[in-house]
Amino acid sequence: MILWDKGYLSADYHLDLFESKQIKLEVPMRKNQQNHKKQTYIFRKKRKRIETLFSQLCDQFKIRNNYAKTFEGFKTRILSKLTALTIIQYINKFVFNRNMNNLKVNIV
Fold first, then answer.
1. What pTM, to 2 d.p., does this model score?
2. Parallel, antiparallel, or unpaired for β 25-26 and 2-3?
3. Share of the chain above pLDDT 70, in %
4. Domain membership of residue 85 as a residue range
5. DSSP per residue over 52-94, as a string?
6. 47, 33: one domain
7. CA nearest to 87, candidates 72, 103, 76, 75
Protein backbone atom coordinates (compact mmCIF):
# COMPACT_ATOMS: atom_id res chain seq x y z
CA MET A 1 0.00 0.00 0.00
CA ILE A 2 1.28 3.45 -0.93
CA LEU A 3 -0.05 6.80 0.28
CA TRP A 4 -0.71 8.88 -2.80
CA ASP A 5 -1.71 12.39 -3.79
CA LYS A 6 -5.21 13.60 -4.72
CA GLY A 7 -4.02 14.08 -8.29
CA TYR A 8 -3.96 10.30 -8.89
CA LEU A 9 -7.65 9.51 -8.85
CA SER A 10 -7.86 7.53 -12.07
CA ALA A 11 -9.55 4.20 -11.38
CA ASP A 12 -7.87 2.70 -14.46
CA TYR A 13 -4.44 3.69 -13.12
CA HIS A 14 -5.23 2.16 -9.70
CA LEU A 15 -6.48 -1.06 -11.24
CA ASP A 16 -3.53 -1.38 -13.63
CA LEU A 17 -1.01 -0.82 -10.82
CA PHE A 18 -2.73 -3.37 -8.60
CA GLU A 19 -3.01 -5.99 -11.33
CA SER A 20 0.58 -5.62 -12.53
CA LYS A 21 2.46 -5.09 -9.23
CA GLN A 22 -0.12 -5.81 -6.46
CA ILE A 23 0.28 -2.22 -5.18
CA LYS A 24 -2.76 -0.55 -3.63
CA LEU A 25 -2.83 3.23 -3.76
CA GLU A 26 -4.40 4.98 -0.76
CA VAL A 27 -5.66 8.25 -2.23
CA PRO A 28 -7.67 10.81 -0.26
CA MET A 29 -10.92 11.66 -1.97
CA ARG A 30 -11.87 15.20 -2.84
CA LYS A 31 -14.80 16.67 -0.99
CA ASN A 32 -16.78 17.23 -4.18
CA GLN A 33 -16.52 13.60 -5.33
CA GLN A 34 -19.45 11.24 -5.29
CA ASN A 35 -19.38 8.76 -2.39
CA HIS A 36 -16.85 10.93 -0.56
CA LYS A 37 -15.43 9.14 2.47
CA LYS A 38 -13.07 10.77 4.92
CA GLN A 39 -9.69 9.09 5.11
CA THR A 40 -8.85 7.29 8.34
CA TYR A 41 -6.93 9.18 11.01
CA ILE A 42 -3.69 7.20 10.62
CA PHE A 43 -3.52 7.94 6.89
CA ARG A 44 -4.30 11.63 7.41
CA LYS A 45 -1.57 11.82 10.07
CA LYS A 46 1.02 10.11 7.83
CA ARG A 47 0.02 12.24 4.86
CA LYS A 48 0.44 15.43 6.89
CA ARG A 49 3.91 14.31 7.97
CA ILE A 50 4.90 13.68 4.35
CA GLU A 51 3.56 17.07 3.22
CA THR A 52 5.36 18.82 6.09
CA LEU A 53 8.63 17.10 5.20
CA PHE A 54 8.36 18.07 1.53
CA SER A 55 7.54 21.64 2.51
CA GLN A 56 10.57 21.81 4.82
CA LEU A 57 12.85 20.40 2.14
CA CYS A 58 11.61 22.98 -0.35
CA ASP A 59 11.58 26.01 1.96
CA GLN A 60 14.48 25.57 4.38
CA PHE A 61 16.76 23.34 2.34
CA LYS A 62 16.04 24.84 -1.11
CA ILE A 63 15.85 21.38 -2.64
CA ARG A 64 14.19 22.71 -5.81
CA ASN A 65 17.16 24.93 -6.68
CA ASN A 66 19.42 22.71 -8.74
CA TYR A 67 22.85 23.99 -9.72
CA ALA A 68 24.43 20.58 -10.27
CA LYS A 69 26.18 20.01 -13.57
CA THR A 70 26.23 16.20 -13.42
CA PHE A 71 23.99 13.49 -12.07
CA GLU A 72 26.65 12.64 -9.46
CA GLY A 73 26.56 16.25 -8.28
CA PHE A 74 22.77 16.14 -8.13
CA LYS A 75 22.79 12.91 -6.10
CA THR A 76 25.39 14.34 -3.72
CA ARG A 77 23.37 17.51 -3.23
CA ILE A 78 20.13 15.67 -2.49
CA LEU A 79 21.86 13.19 -0.18
CA SER A 80 23.58 15.97 1.78
CA LYS A 81 20.29 17.82 2.30
CA LEU A 82 18.46 14.67 3.41
CA THR A 83 21.34 13.84 5.75
CA ALA A 84 21.27 17.34 7.26
CA LEU A 85 17.51 17.08 7.79
CA THR A 86 17.85 13.66 9.42
CA ILE A 87 20.63 14.82 11.74
CA ILE A 88 18.62 17.88 12.85
CA GLN A 89 15.59 15.69 13.52
CA TYR A 90 17.70 13.20 15.48
CA ILE A 91 19.27 15.94 17.61
CA ASN A 92 15.88 17.52 18.29
CA LYS A 93 14.28 14.21 19.27
CA PHE A 94 16.99 12.36 21.20
CA VAL A 95 19.39 15.03 22.46
CA PHE A 96 17.13 17.98 23.31
CA ASN A 97 13.84 16.05 23.67
CA ARG A 98 12.02 18.53 21.42
CA ASN A 99 9.58 18.13 18.56
CA MET A 100 11.68 16.69 15.74
CA ASN A 101 9.95 18.83 13.13
CA ASN A 102 11.16 22.16 14.55
CA LEU A 103 13.99 22.71 12.11
CA LYS A 104 14.35 26.45 12.58
CA VAL A 105 15.26 26.42 16.28
CA ASN A 106 18.84 26.83 17.49
CA ILE A 107 20.58 23.55 18.21
CA VAL A 108 22.76 25.16 20.88
1. 0.58
2. parallel
3. 89
4. 40-108
5. HHHHHHHHTS-TT----SSHHHHHHHHHHHHHHHHHHHHIIII
6. no
7. 103
